[in-house]
Amino acid sequence: MEDQQRDDPRFIIAKHEALMGIALVIFNFLWWFGFAYGLGSKPVSEYSYILGLPSWFFYSCVVGLFVVIGLVFIMVKFFLKDVDFDGEHEG
Questions:
Q1: What UniProt keywords are attached to this protein's entry (predicted)?
Q2: β-bridge mates for residue 49, sequence order
């Protein structure tokens, strides 16, 4: 069973796509953490504001959301493959 899964190209594709998803989650966390604690670690009196939001919040949460949505779109459109997991593997 395990050898069959190792040779099945569907599982290889699924493994690569899972690793891309994990990489995207790690990128999202690093983006959020970097802006939130990088810009947000100053005293409140030194904060700058964008659209009424502290800049650390704006970059970490608002801009980060759109960056990650764009990356997910690119990943789904160009890197993920449509694989039939219901059918039997031929070969």
A1: Membrane, Transmembrane, Transmembrane helix
A2: 54
